[in-house]
Amino acid sequence: MWDSSEVAAYTGGELTGNPEVRAAGCIIDSRQVQGGEIFFALAGEKVDGHEFIETAWRNGAAIVVAEKERLNLREPLQIPEDKALIQVDSGLNAVQALARAWREKLGAKVVGITGSNGKTTTKDMVAAVLAQKYRVHKNKENHNNELGLPLTILNAPSGTEILVLEMGMRGLGQIKALCEIAKPDFGVITNIGTTHLELLGSEENIARAKWELIESLPAEGVAVVNAEDFWSCRQAEVDLHANCFYGFQGLYHIPDLRGMNLQPVGTLGTRFEVVTAGQAGQTVNITIELPLPGEHNVLDALAALSVGLLFEVSLQEACRGLAEMELSRMRLELHPGIQGSTLISDVYNANPTSMQASLKVLQERGGNTTLAILGDMYELGDASISGHFAVGKTAAELGISELIAVGELAGEIARGAQESGMPPSTVYSCLTREEAVDKAREILGRLNQKAWVLIKASRGMRMEEVTKALREG
After folding, report:
1. Is 355:416 a contact under the CB 8 Å cutoff?
2. Nearest one of 236, 245, 230, 197 to 213, comparing CA atoms
3. Using CA atoms, how far apart are residues 394 and 400, in angstroms rounded to an integer?
4. Apex CA 378: angle with CA 373 and CA 384, to 5°?
5. I want to staple 154 with a disulfide (CB 3.0 to 4.6 A). Which of 7, 26, 188, 333 is the partner?
6. Which of 255, 330, 268 is closest to 297 using CA atoms?
7. Contact (Cβ atoms closer than 8 angstroms) between residue 245 and residue 256
8. For the ranges 255-259, 381-385, 398-402, which has the lowest average pLDDT?
9. Measuring CA to CA, how many Å separate 398 from each of 23, 50, 299, 362?
């Protein structure tokens, strides 16, 4: 809970109106006002929040924070007597300054999570595990940037004990900037791959950018590290923070917490064993059922279990949390499809590693009757051709029955599949989503068995429209 004088002081703004009006919660969309919030009027690419200040007040916002320069271009505002207006130089800077203050007021522990793959799923898993014992607040979906992260902090209710914060990045220094707001106590690195190679130029630079999370931890902070990831383990070797490693066989470091004996169960679940050292060095072994498929999701679960142990959440308690977890939208959604098919819609984002992992899930669940509809992957830089080609090669090696490549870049997926032995008669290239839907309907109509269908691409491809077109009914 804030009063308008406090908000003005923390944001360095000029206050007019009621200096004692109270507010809780922060929003940037006037339509989401429920009553008593702070409305930040921010100027976006398509919408300027300054056009909706009066609407926000009418809907119940208590305090409006707006930019002086933009207000000077408008007619003077009539501030309701029980409301307040705070004028600042930068709306974004004001959001971030207030978030820093609220993070300190909360006194919560903060778990920061980043990586090239799986960070949103890992965030959801970590929150589910910790919620078995603590009051937890996390990012909605992947609100993980310079605006989404501070808004997440600002909307954490009083009494929050742990903040679980996903951190995204598009360049060097960006995670460091997020950490200056969030002040993480623990850091999780899921993996370091080729996502953002176009922007950062090399995997070494990507590793440096991701590792800014660990470098920002206090001296007593702990890094939770994937023992199967080369760059993560290489960075950990020269870092002075304590490390907790998780993994399977431990390609690059011996895991402190190890997963083994993975088995598919149910429609999309996975049963696996977890082995770790307990008190007095005794080995602890427990069987866990995860409501998600694939080795990559088990690896993310091991990261969450590791964080849980650091907070003294037992493996038994953590197991209940994973069983009850809710995933953010557009990740491994299961839908009934036309012609009796089963659709795996994993359309939020994609890179070669996540594509290959999802293809393994498709093959594992669909057996001999599978269709992969794969679109362009963005931001791969010089690795774009080789990355798309590698995905096609994996599809062929896994024995995927039919493949539809969607988009110009995805043509390399088709080429990789054919050159790796997939029959040309089962590989199709389409430039548009509409073509892909028509081809998928044709394929599903002639298959003799009910097929499993994977739909995946980078977010900009909007492949959820393919999912929608192929859903039953």
Report:
1. no
2. 236
3. 9
4. 90
5. 26
6. 268
7. yes
8. 381-385
9. 56, 53, 21, 9
**Kind plus residue range of the DSSP H or E element containing 212:** helix 203-215
Work out whether strand 427-430 and strand 269-277 pair parallel, antiparallel, or are unpaired. unpaired
pLDDT at 195: 59
The amino acid occupying position 230 is F
DSSP 76-132: PP---TT-EEEEES-HHHHHHHHHHHHHHHH--EEEEEE-SSSHHHHHHHHHHHHTT
Q: What is the DSSP string of 297-313?
A: HHHHHHHHHHHHHHTT-
Which of 204, 146, 156 is CA-nearest to residue 179? 146
What is the Cα–Cα distance from 227 to 251, expressed in whole angstroms?
Answer: 6
In one letter, which amino acid is 1?
M
Q: Is 66 exposed, middle or buried (0-12, 13-18, 19+ CB in 10 A)?
A: buried
**pTM for the predicted model, two decimal places:** 0.85
- Rounded Cα–Cα distance for residues 304 and 252 (Å): 20
